[in-house]
Amino acid sequence: MTPKEQLLQYRQSIDNLDAALVHILAERFRCTKAVGHLKAEHDLPPADPAREEQQISRLRDLAKSADLDPDFAETFLNFIIKEVIRHHEQIAAQHGGQEK
């Protein structure tokens, strides 16, 4: 296999993985949206710091076992958590509930 062919093969795999990540993130946000509605209906706070810390710790451990930089994994999860909380705050505001 030539280097050009090998590069093309790697890029095809990367493209497939990127597509899978988008679909996985979409499914995750569908689930967290449902959580946001449940929280709003029961006047629960949009954020759950204890759960977030637990998830960060769990993800760091998973990253280590997968040979992925745990700091990168934590940064990625924190970005997602921030976006989820923002969605939950919007849902709470639409329900006339608490925002923080």
UniProtKB/TrEMBL annotation:
Location of the Chorismate mutase domain: 1-92
Enzyme Commission number, as recorded: 5.4.99.5
Enzyme class: isomerase
Keyword NADP: no
Any one GO BP annotation for this protein: salicylic acid biosynthetic process
A GO MF label: chorismate mutase activity
UniProt keyword list: Isomerase
Keyword Transmembrane helix listed: no
Protein name, as recorded: chorismate mutase
